[in-house]
Specification:
mainly alpha; 84% helix
């Protein structure tokens, strides 16, 4: 996979992570504390959905952060190798 596609994938993962985390927290806050259920719905069902969304956001967010830091570290190493290859006069 080329570098441009990796960057786009990392950005997409970051966006999905933020969206999942935000929707999980919003569902938990709204459904459990502010809106009484219209029918029979267990609070544990709403809770598990929100917890899974938060977990998904956390996992994707950590991966995206790791990818960015790894790419930055790789660029620094490549720069150091280039500097060592250049002859000093």
């Amino acid at each position: 996979m080329n570098e441009k596609k990796r960057i786009e994938l990392t950005k997409l993962q970051g966006i999905i992570a933020v969206a999942s985390f935000t929707s999980g927290v919003t569902i938990a806050a709204v459904c459990l504390f502010f809106i009484p259920p219209l029918g029979e719905i267990a609070s544990s069902a709403v809770s598990i959905v929100s917890e899974l969304l938060v977990l998904c956001g956390a996992i994707l967010g950590v991966k995206a952060s790791y990818d960015v830091k790894f790419r930055k570290f790789q660029a620094e190493l490549d720069q150091m190798i280039e500097n060592e290859k250049q002859p000093t006069t």
